[in-house]
Amino acid sequence: MDSRETKRTVPVPSVGADGEQPISQTTIKSIAEETAENNPQEESLEEMLRDMRRMSDSAYLHTVSMNDLYQNIYQSRPPVIDGLLYPGTYLFAGAPKVGKSFLMAQLAYHVSTGLPLWDYPVHKGTVLYLALEDDHRRLQGRLYRMFGTEGTNDLLFAVYAKQLGVGLEEQLKKFVREHPDTKLIIIDTLQKIREAGGDKYSYANDYEVVGKLKRFADDCGVCLLLVHHTRKQQADDKFDMISGTNGLAGAADGAFLLQDDMRKPFGSPPPRRSFFPRARDATM
Fold first, then answer.
1. What's residue 197's pLDDT?
2. What's the whole-model pTM score?
3. Is residue 43 one of the residues assigned to a domain?
4. Do the Cβ atoms of 280 and 253 come closer than 8 Å?
5. Choosing a second label site near 17 at 20 to 30 A (CA), which of 1, 76, 94, 117?
6. Tens digit of pLDDT for each residue in 39-74?
7. How confident is the model at residue 264 (pLDDT cuts 50, 70, 90)?
């Protein structure tokens, strides 16, 4: 047998006296790697497990790249009333007896029937009105004076609801599940559903109260109107007259202010009312 044949039959020399093993040029893959290559589902499962381990880390911070953000397709949310009212959370503030409940009833009726409001096109949908400072008799009288006998089954009222943090969110979510075409929810008034607490008028608590309601509205894609009061003191910025701290307006998507231009004695012609809307990202 010649030397060339010997080299072919013994490709790897034996271990020498120094005890070192020559390095083989052949790369041997692990069973896990070969399995992942042969089975894409296994590779996907391993990736999911790695993601789960990362998310279980207490220091985990979820991030998304700009390119990934651009790749996502987000469903647009059409307005409730074109040019006036959009999905989101808004404060609607005014002095006592200025007509807030009448205006809320008008908004609710037009959205529930789809009738144009002040030449603004309206998108019809179910409306929930929490009239928490009324009873059914007062509601009936007010609605009859405003709309006569023309009623609608798409406008629903409640004169009692739980408070925020002790069941209100669950009540609202259940209503939306049962009425998936809900477009507008009115809470009249915000004070009626606030949690009881000694520091409820702090900036942090005001921000948290509206923040909880905003999360609900954003998750469900509805417009949430929170009826609230104004202070007696005048201000250069009319929206600084909203009762409470700036945390209320800071957490909301916008605010509306209803104000008499002039208070007049009883028997005088009705005062002219000014309606001031302020909203951010209203077209989004």
1. 61
2. 0.73
3. no
4. yes
5. 1
6. 667 678 888 888 888 888 888 898 899 999 999 888
7. very low
Q: Is residue 273 part of a domain?
A: yes
Whether 209 is in a domain gets the answer yes
How many structural domains compose the chain? 1
Question: 3-class DSSP state for residue 201?
Answer: coil
Say how far apart CA 34 and CA 23 lie, in whole Å. Answer: 22
In sign, the C-alpha dihedral spanning 96, 116, 179, 279 is negative
Q: What would you report as the CA-atom Rg of the chain, rounded to the nearest whole angstrom?
A: 32
For the chain, what is the largest distance between any 2 Cα atoms, rounded to a whole number of angstroms?
129
Helix (H/G/I), strand (E/B), else coil: 165: coil
Question: Could you list the residue range(s) of the whole structural domain that residue 194 is in?
Answer: 88-279
Per the model's pLDDT, the better-predicted residue between 169 and 261 turns out to be 169
Q: Which residue has the tokens 């893959």?
A: 29
User: What strand order describes the sheet that includes 182-188?
Assistant: 155-158, 126-131, 182-188, 223-229, 88-94, 254-260, 273-279
Report d(CA 120, CA 122) in Å as an integer.
Answer: 6
The pLDDT of residue 220 is above 70? yes
Cis (ω within 30 of 0) for the bond into 189? yes
Strand-pairing partners, residue 184, are 127, 223
Rounded CA-CA distance 85/202 in Å is: 28
Hunting for tokens 């603004």 — which residue is that? 120
Q: Which residue has the tokens 């089954």?
A: 153
Q: How confident is the model at residue 109 (pLDDT cuts 50, 70, 90)?
A: very high
φ, ψ at 279 (rounded to 5°): -145, 150
| Amino acid in the structure at residue 226 | L
Name which residue leads in pLDDT, 122 or 31.
122
Residue 204 lies in a domain: yes
pLDDT category, 181, cuts 50, 70, 90? very high
